[in-house]
Amino acid sequence: MGYVGCVTAAALSRRDNYVVGVDVNQQKVQTINRGEAPVLEKGLAELVAESVRAGRMRATANGAAAVVETDLSLVCVGTRPRRMAVSIIAIYLARSRRSRGNQAEKW
Hints:
By secondary structure, the chain is mostly helical. It has five helices and two strands. The model has no long low-confidence stretch (mean pLDDT 82).
């Protein structure tokens, strides 16, 4: 849950949507679940705190469970540095797909 994922999750939860963010980084998951923003963005800390406190936003490392308990899945991966091969992005996407398990294929 970086800049795109956390900001998007917080914005969606502000509109009374129940949002489950997924990240492999357990520290980010714990940070969000404490109601703290894992990245610096103006207004994000307050929005995350409000959304978590209201029960509209939480984070987990279990992608498959998040897919099962939500109606929509958005995949956000890190922006590739100029020198990084495009194939590395494909690896990130493949890892993301594996972390979600076969749950998405049931739809």
